[in-house]
Write a structure and sequence with these properties.
The chain is mainly alpha-helical. It is 69% helix and 0% strand. The chain is globular, with a radius of gyration of 24 Å.
Length: 483
């Protein structure tokens, strides 16, 4: 079930909201949580019912192991739990990837299996591994099956995060919070802005991005302007798409009086690659740091081990996103960026102007997004050839006459690409300025909350919501749904 669907917005959500709060109003807090758990399981089973069994078995298995660890801090129990979760993840997500890689290297003919990737398996696997580790490290002292099941299954963050931590969520289930209209107001603002970002901005950008990468995958020579237009558009698309999901998730959680971590903090305002990762997909960055980089030794052993740990962490972070070498290379490229940044940072005190540093960081991140978006290395190489002018520039002569909004910048050249007009280029530039100068959704919500007469803002948010609903003809999946 998609957040950006009529059924979710006008059927599932109102019923879930009503049942939960009616039970809470009657002081039936366990019943309210049980209704929310059933709603979350229905949400998960809506598209692929059979994998609900996998989710429930995974929850019960982890809960039982955690119960054993609470009594006996035996590292073998932790090893069994983490190993079982990783093996499950490897089977569903990476089995065919390994088989295909072996075939390419050895030339052997090995039949692959028709394995369907269960929704959200990467997210709930990481959450449960983190929980087991924390139990082993005495960070959890008691547990409750209903609260734990809801912690893993809560539909607002189940499919694409944020990757929530038990200490931030489970205590909230125990609180008998009274109904707060202020939280409801904030929830509706978060959800409306997120819906607008997804339906109006991200899905519109996809109309240019998708044909460009499709053309590259079919070996059409993508020119300099076409490739840069597509790459910049994708850099914007993935931000607006993923941050839209995160905004909507935060809003949905607030409807049930639950606070989630904010996953984005204006990442394209970062002045270096290290700062970018402090602002982008914050919950994943924290998980990789706390449960992979630091256990590997972090920066405590030697300079060489620090670099190796960083590369391993980023490479595995890339692999977590998907079973393709392009994801691994994307992670390794970011690891290389971080190594170069750390090396330069250690030996120089030169201050780079903030605007230039921000533009350069955006350039590096966009270069890496090519690998992330490409379905294979061939597509990525074709796009890189265009980015670095190996396929030519080929501006349409009509565009050179005058910078008119009505003339195309790119000549069709018998490719499946749409015209890329100066109007579209202006739109990309405007969106970049919006990302650089405008506050994030959380800041907007905080600002509206302190207004004495927020009527104007209420009208504006209502217009965004209605406009998004009217344009909600086709429901496009969020990019991170496939991870």
């Amino acid at each position: 079930m998609l957040f950006n669907s009529y059924y979710f917005i006008f059927v599932f959500l109102p019923i879930s909201f009503a049942l939960y709060h009616l039970a809470k109003q009657n002081k039936s807090f366990k019943v309210a949580k049980f209704f929310l758990l059933l709603s979350s399981w229905y949400f998960y089973a809506y598209l692929e019912p059979k994998y609900l069994i996998l989710l429930i078995v995974s929850i019960l298995f982890n809960y039982k192991l955690a119960k054993l660890l609470l009594k006996n801090k035996n590292p073998n129990i932790l090893f069994i739990g983490v190993g079982a979760h990783l093996l499950t993840l490897v089977y569903f997500k990476y089995f065919n990837f390994f088989i295909d890689t072996i075939q390419q290297i050895s030339g052997l003919s090995i039949s692959s299996s028709n394995i369907v990737l269960p929704l959200a398996i990467s997210f709930f696997t990481f959450q449960q591994i983190a929980y087991l580790v924390d139990v082993y490290q005495n960070k959890v002292h008691s547990q409750n099956l209903l609260d734990y099941s809801l912690f893993v299954s809560f539909f607002a963050q189940l499919i694409a995060g944020p990757i929530v931590h038990h200490k931030d969520i489970i205590p909230q289930f125990a609180l008998s919070r009274s109904f707060s209209w202020l939280k409801i107001q904030s929830a509706l603002i978060f959800f409306s802005i997120g819906l607008f970002k997804k339906v109006i901005v991200a899905d519109t950008l996809a109309q240019f991005v998708d044909p460009a990468f499709l053309a590259a995958s079919q070996s059409y020579p993508i020119t300099f302007v076409e490739s840069w237009g597509a790459v910049c558009a994708y850099s914007l698309q993935i931000y607006f798409d993923f941050s839209a999901y995160s905004d909507m998730a935060v809003g949905l959680a607030l409807l049930f009086q639950i606070d989630l971590i904010h996953n984005f903090n204006r990442p394209y305002q970062a002045t270096n690659i290290k700062e970018f990762w402090r602002r982008w997909h914050i919950s994943l960055s924290l998980f990789l740091k706390n449960y992979l980089y630091i256990p590997l030794g972090g920066n405590r052993i030697s300079r060489f081990r620090t670099k190796l740990n960083l590369i391993i962490t980023m490479g595995l972070g890339g692999l977590w996103h998907g079973s393709q070498w392009t994801f691994v290379l994307w992670g390794l490229l970011h690891g290389l960026y971080l190594l170069i940044y750390e090396s330069i940072f250690r030996v120089t005190t030169i201050k780079i102007p903030r605007l230039f540093a921000t533009i350069f960081t955006f350039f590096l991140v966009s270069i890496a997004w090519v690998l992330f978006r490409s379905p294979d290395l061939h597509t990525a190489i074709t796009m890189y050839q265009g980015l670095f002018t190996l396929n030519g520039i080929e501006l349409d002569y009509r565009s050179i006459e005058a910078f008119s909004l009505h003339y195309p910048l790119i000549q069709a050249r018998n490719t499946p690409l749409p015209y890329f007009s100066f109007y579209q280029m202006y739109c990309l530039i405007v969106l970049l300025f919006v990302l650089y100068f405008c506050p994030c959704t959380k800041d907007i919500v905080d600002y509206i909350k302190i207004q004495e007469k927020p009527l104007l803002w209420s009208i504006l948010i209502s217009i965004l919501f209605v406009f998004s609903i009217v344009c909600l003809e086709q429901q496009h999946q969020f990019i991170y749904f496939r991870f």
